[in-house]
Design goal:
Blueprint (H helix, E strand, L loop, with lengths): L11 E4 L5 E6 L5 E3 L7 H17 L12 H11 L5 H19 L9 H13 L4 H20 L27 H10 L2 E3 L1 E5 L5 E6 L5 E8 L2 H13 L5 E3 L4 H9 L4 H5 L6 E2 L4 E4 L2 E4 L5 E4 L8 E4 L5 H11 L19 H8 L1 H8 L7 H13 L4 H8 L4 H10 L1 H25 L12
Antiparallel strand pairs: 1-2, 2-3, 4-8, 5-6, 6-7, 9-10, 10-13, 11-12
Helix pairs in contact: 2-3, 3-5, 6-8, 8-13, 13-15, 14-15
Family: Belongs to the 'phage' integrase family.
InterPro entries: CB, DNA_brk_join_enz, Integrase-like_cat_sf, Integrase_catalytic, Integrase_recombinase_N, Integrase_SAM-like_N, Phage_L5_Integrase_N, Tyrosine_recombinase_XerCD
Pfam family, one: Phage_integrase
């Protein structure tokens, strides 16, 4: 708006040699800013100044100089400054930024990001074959970064991540085991078929296996790869043609992970002093995190609620007692479950020692992951009809969402509640019959 004499009350406008109009104005701190774009007419420039003044007055103005920072630079700094991130989460964020965000949007200034641009980025990821889960994770990271730019740093007036449903994951339903399957899996992880492989001059592999009685036999066919020969040896063991040996050092590991609903990092960090067989409790107070470089870090559980004490079924106490007696050192601080060399058990070592893929395939659940054991334990607990708070405490969650997911899925838990209500109703009926002393009740109309 111009004052008398043609002088503007707020900001100024000048015509450039190009014929376009440039806007300059004082920010809230008194410093003179130049609008990031020029305008085709003086009327457009005046309208822009009016809008800028209104934003300054109502507190929604953002400094255009700050908005010039590139997204890649800002996001990398955002990750570095999040001191509370767990190591694995920090690695995941850095990977998502470098793999899916920075190559497409990293060179764009924060102030130039728009919702259509982000929608196009998601479309490009999908066309490049990036899975829905990875796209959702990348979008949620970008949304969190830009929310900081809006709320904390006040660089942007609004978050351009406004693509409906882009941050939602629809993961496939994970398998759960029956109780007999859990015990069968605990037995199978300790089975090893006896045989050996020899690479021939032709590059193929010859298989020899031991049959009952200790006799070694040569398989009549050769195999193009060692992996094929290994699969054949496991098939021979499953069919009862090859002899097997047993190693029970991971039997209690499977049972405890399932029936105590423990995460991988939690169960691998357990010490002898955390196990109380008399009270049938397991104390969870730490967790191991394996970084991408192979380094093992010992820290707190995933959440505050992760520090907990879990009661275990009496049925698995004998297996745990035997494990402590045979495989765990006597020191109170000794790791309950260890790798081959006595250090913390690693996922890669576990999969190799157990031949996990062969074992779960033989069990009839070829897509089973180790984390599905915790999933199974959570579902079994929900089937008991316990309260949400009790289920949260057992799972080590500090929000209700995960617990409610298990309870909503639990038809058995709902049936248990209904059966309990039925028992209460029946008890009341029985009490009424006793109070009536056997006399038949008569309905009397009331005027």
């Amino acid at each position: 708006m111009a004052n008398k004499g043609g002088h503007r009350r707020f900001g100024n406008i000048r015509k450039r040699d190009s014929g376009r109009y440039q806007v300059r104005y004082p920010g809230p701190d008194g410093r003179i800013r130049t609008a990031p774009q020029t305008f085709a007419s003086k009327t457009e420039a005046e309208r822009a100044l009016t809008l800028i003044e209104a934003k300054i007055l109502n507190g929604t103005w953002t400094d255009p100089e700050l908005a010039k920072v590139k997204l890649g630079t800002y996001a990398a700094r955002w990750i570095d400054q999040r001191q509370m991130l767990r190591p694995r989460t920090r690695e995941l964020y850095a990977w998502l930024l470098g793999k899916h965000i920075a190559p497409h949007l990293g060179g764009v200034s924060l102030g130039k990001l728009t919702t259509p641009m982000i929608r196009e980025w998601l479309t490009t990821l999908a066309n490049d074959g990036v899975g829905a889960t990875s796209r959702a994770k990348a979008y949620r990271l970008l949304r969190a970064v830009l929310m900081t730019a809006v709320v904390e740093d006040e660089i942007l007036p609004r978050n351009p991540c406004q693509v409906r449903g882009a941050g939602s994951e629809y993961a496939e339903e994970r398998p759960t085991l029956t109780i007999p399957q859990v015990f069968e899996l605990a037995e199978r992880v300790g089975m090893r078929p006896v045989g050996n492989f020899r690479k021939l001059d032709s590059g193929e592999y010859r298989l020899r296996y031991r049959v009952k009685g200790g006799i070694m036999r040569r398989f009549p066919l050769t195999f193009a790869t060692r992996a094929e020969a290994e699969r054949a040896l496991w098939k021979l063991a499953e069919d009862g043609q090859a002899d097997v040996i047993r190693d029970d050092r991971l039997r209690a590991f499977i049972l405890l992970a399932t029936f105590a609903s423990l995460r991988w990092g939690e169960i691998t960090a357990l010490r002898r002093c955390d196990i109380d067989l008399a009270r049938r409790t397991v104390r969870v107070r730490a967790a191991y995190v394996e970084q991408a470089n192979g380094r093992m870090l010992l820290g707190p559980p995933k959440s505050k609620a992760g520090v907990r004490t879990v009661t275990i079924p009496a049925a698995i106490v004998p297996a745990l007692a035997a494990h402590l007696e045979i495989y765990t050192k006597p020191d109170a601080d000794a790791l309950v479950f260890t790798g081959v060399k006595g250090g913390p058990l690693r996922r890669s070592g576990f999969n190799k020692v157990t031949n996990w893929k062969h074992v779960v395939k033989a069990l009839g659940v070829p897509n089973l992951h180790f984390h599905d054991l915790r999933h199974t334990g959570n579902q079994l607990a929900a089937d008991m009809g316990v309260s949400t708070k009790n289920l949260m405490a057992r799972m080590g969650h500090d929000n209700e969402r995960a617990a409610l997911r298990y309870q909503h899925k639990s038809a058995k838990g709902d049936r248990a509640i209904a059966d309990g209500l039925d028992a209460l109703v029946q008890a009341e009926h029985d009490q009424d019959d006793e109070d009536d002393d056997g006399a038949a009740g008569v309905l009397v109309p009331v005027a």
